[in-house]
Design brief:
This protein has 399 residues and is an alpha+beta fold. The protein is built from 16 helices and 10 strands. Strands 1, 2, 3, 4, 8, 9 and 10 form a 7-stranded antiparallel sheet that branches. The chain has a 3-stranded antiparallel sheet with strand order 5-7-6. Strand 9 and strand 10 form a beta hairpin. The chain is globular.
Length: 399
C-alpha cells in the first residue's frame, strides 16, 4: 500500500478513501489530488512513487507535467488579459496581429479562435524544439496556416495549436510583449503563490519532477482500444485525416516519451507541457470559481468564461475528436458523456487521466494528476471518482 500524505478537511474524507483505493485497486503509481472550496484548501493529498526508476516517493512539492490541463491555466491568463482591457473577445484577431489575416483568417474573432471554431487545429509547418524556443519563429509558422473549414461553421479540438495562437495574441496586446508563459508567471502564478510553469525554469531541480511512466506500448494500447471513441481511433490510424495531422506536430508534444526530456519542458507549449504541483492548479481554479478578487478579475470576464460558446452553425460535432463536444473561451464545458460539473463549470482534461476544473456554482477548484498514463480520452476512473467525491462534499458545505 502506497503511503498517502497530506490532509482532508472535515466532510471530505471520501476523497481520501477514493485516493487510497486508486493505489489499492486501480494501479496508481504516483499521484496527487487537491480541492479548493471558497478559497480554502480542503483536500491536499499525495502519495506513491514519483520516479519508477529510482523509487523516489511523491513528495509535498513534487511537480508533474499535466498535458492539456495546461490549456486551462493558459485560458486563465487569457481571461486575466481580457479583464485588464487588453483585447475584446469579439474583436478580430487580425486587429491585434495583422500577419494573422492571410489565407482566409481575416475575419476570425478572438472568441471564434478560443472556442475551437477557427478551423486551424493542425499546424503544417514542422515545429521542432529549436523553433518552439523562438516565439517569433512560432508566430511566423502559424500565422500563414489556412483554415480547414469556414471559421465559425464547425469546431474541432485545437489540441496543440490553440496555445501557440493564444501566446502570440498575448504578445501582441501586452504592453510588455510577454509570452503566455511569462504572462501567466507574472500575473497569475506570482500573486497566488503558485508552483506551476508553462516553460519550466532551469533552476527547478529534476528531483522535483515526477517521471512519467508511459505504458503506451502497442500490445497494451490494442487491449485498451475500447476505451476510446471508435471514430476517433479510426481517424488517428489514417495519416491523412485531420485528426492524425493535428496530433502529428509538434513532435515534442505528440511523442509522449519526450515528456521525460527536460528540453521539452523548457520551451513553452501552452496547450500541452505545463509542469507544476496539483495544488497550484486547484488554487488557480478556486480563485476564479470564487470571484477572482485577489487577481482583480471583473465579473463580465468570469461570466464569459463560464458560458458555453454558441455552437458552430453545423452543430456540436468535433471534427478532431469525432464526438460531440462543447467549449468556452479556451476551456471545455460539460457535455453528455463528460458532465464534470454544474452548467457554469469549465476546465480541461489532460492526456492519461489528469484533470483541472473550476465550478463557480460550488466555488470549487479541483485538480488531479498522476505519472502513470491511463487510456481514457476523459473520465479516467481514478479522476472521475475523486471528482465526484469532491463535488458531493462541496455541495454539502454550501450554506
Amino acid at each position: 500500500m502506497a503511503r498517502i500524505q497530506g490532509h482532508t478537511a472535515s466532510g471530505y474524507e471520501e476523497v481520501r478513501q477514493v485516493f487510497e483505493a486508486n493505489f489499492r485497486t486501480r494501479k496508481e503509481l504516483g499521484a496527487a489530488v487537491a480541492v479548493v472550496v471558497q478559497n480554502e484548501l480542503v483536500v491536499d493529498l499525495w502519495g506513491g512513487i514519483a520516479d519508477p526508476k529510482t523509487k523516489q516517493p511523491w513528495a509535498e512539492d513534487t511537480m508533474v507535467n499535466m498535458f492539456s490541463v495546461t490549456k486551462g491555466m493558459a485560458a486563465l491568463a487569457i481571461a486575466h488579459a481580457h479583464s485588464r482591457g487588453l483585447f475584446g473577445y469579439d474583436q478580430k484577431v487580425a486587429e491585434y496581429w495583422p500577419e494573422f489575416s492571410v489565407n482566409g483568417k481575416q475575419d476570425i474573432t478572438v472568441r471564434t479562435l478560443l472556442s475551437h471554431q477557427a478551423g486551424i487545429p493542425a499546424i503544417d509547418a514542422p515545429l521542432d524544439l529549436d523553433t518552439l524556443a523562438d516565439a517569433d519563429a512560432v508566430a511566423a509558422a502559424i500565422a500563414v496556416q489556412a483554415p480547414e473549414w469556414e471559421p465559425g461553421e464547425k469546431h474541432g479540438y485545437h489540441s496543440f495549436s490553440l496555445g501557440f495562437y493564444e501566446s502570440e495574441l498575448i504578445r501582441r496586446v501586452d504592453p510588455q510583449h510577454r509570452t503566455l508563459g511569462r504572462y501567466f508567471a507574472d500575473e497569475i502564478a506570482a500573486p497566488l503563490g503558485l508552483d506551476f510553469y508553462i516553460g519550466l525554469p532551469d533552476d527547478i531541480p529534476n528531483e522535483r519532477i515526477a517521471r512519467l511512466a508511459m505504458d503506451w506500448y502497442r500490445a497494451k494500447i490494442i487491449f485498451n482500444l475500447r476505451k476510446f471513441p471508435p471514430d476517433f481511433l479510426k481517424a488517428t490510424f489514417n495519416r491523412k485525416s485531420l485528426t492524425a495531422r493535428v496530433f502529428a506536430n509538434p513532435k515534442a508534444a505528440t511523442d509522449v516519451t519526450e515528456y521525460n526530456n527536460r528540453a521539452a519542458y523548457r520551451v513553452e507549449m501552452p496547450s500541452a507541457n505545463g509542469v507544476g504541483t496539483v495544488r497550484s492548479v486547484a488554487i488557480a481554479y478556486g480563485e476564479f470559481a470564487s470571484g477572482g478578487a485577489r487577481l482583480g478579475i471583473d465579473a463580465g470576464t468570469l461570466d464569459s468564461l463560464s458560458q458555453t460558446t454558441a455552437p458552430p452553425s453545423s452543430g456540436p460535432f468535433d471534427e478532431v475528436l469525432r464526438i460531440d463536444t462543447q467549449f468556452s473561451l479556451g476551456v471545455m464545458k460539460p457535455f453528455p458523456g463528460f458532465e464534470f460539473g454544474s452548467p457554469d463549470a469549465y476546465g480541461t482534461p489532460g492526456f492519461g487521466g489528469s484533470m483541472g476544473l473550476a465550478d463557480p456554482a460550488l466555488r470549487m477548484g479541483f485538480c488531479y494528476a498522476m505519472n502513470r498514463a491511463g487510456y481514457h480520452m476523459f473520465n479516467d476512473p481514478r479522476e472521475q471518482l475523486l471528482r465526484d467525491a469532491a463535488r458531493r462534499a462541496a455541495e454539502k458545505s454550501l450554506p
